[in-house]
Amino acid sequence: MYQIITPKTEQELEKYYHLRWQMLKEPFGFPPGSEKDEYDSLAEHRMVYGSDGRVLAVGRVHFVSQDEAQIRHVAVCSNCRGKGLGSLIMTTLEQVARAQNAKRVITFSRADSVAFFEHCGYQVIDNPIIDIPGGQPSNRRQMVKKLSEFDGILRHPLWCKELQETWLNKIPITQAMGIKVFQYTGAQFEVRAALNANINMHKTMFAGSIYSMATLAGWGMVHLLLKETSLRGSIVLGKGEISYRKAITKHPIAKVHLNNIEGELAPLRKGKKARLRLQVCLYDDARKCGDFFGEYYILPEQASDDLLAESHPPAP
After folding, report:
1. How many domains, in total, are found in the chain?
2. Domain assignment of residue 152, yes or no
3. Confidence bin at 127 (pLDDT 50/70/90)
4. Euclidean distance between CA atoms 129 and 145, whole angstroms
5. What residues contact 26, with CB distance under 8 A and at least 6 apart?
6. How does pLDDT run across 70-79, given as a tens digit for each residue?
7. Residue range of the domain that includes 273
């Protein structure tokens, strides 16, 4: 189990810098303290904690211009490599840059780390440059990544991009409401909406808009579960119930967790209808505001084609 934090206390910062020195400076003979530089006070720092309290990965990001951020000092504990922690740190730092409206992120990567950054979506944009740490030349490559709103999604960002495009093309009102896929981890799906596009006379979010956001969050989670299991079908909402506890006045959020889903998709493999009942938790930023319970039916493709033919019979 991992936890991503911003190191703030003296103890956290000590652990953060120690791993940075241990992995990035000590192997080249540099003393403790050499891992720090003049940009640390201006940067955003993140580190990954293990369940045993050990620091497993670290990294930082700082702005070099209004539109451009630079990621540096990414390090992963030597016995934790190959577990995706480096990519997790990169995604976290990119999210920080994106939240501050960065359009791209750059790195100056050592030759032995170029492949890792390419895996994270970066491209070499310049000839090798010469860095001189301690008087010893070291070839580095400048790399860049243009940020998009889907880069920060932890699991299957292309699926989420496809889902967003489906909503925009088939349910155009989602664009007017500012409803967007925000995150998918495999265990949880999160959707957000723009409050200013759904505000009522009381300066709170329309109840109908909350219902629509919740319905789409449930629909989207079912869609992604179908993709995860390599199944196909038409998703329809059979029944929906919602409870509004508090008004939404800041940041509308809808979350669906795998633990809050009942039912099976297996009947689809036999050409039969499947049913899932799920709970969508509604938030205003971090404050819980209500719950939506939806019962979704997934019709096998042949069945959905038959229903379409019955609804629209061929002309004589």
Report:
1. 2
2. no
3. low
4. 18
5. none
6. 999 999 998 8
7. 157-308
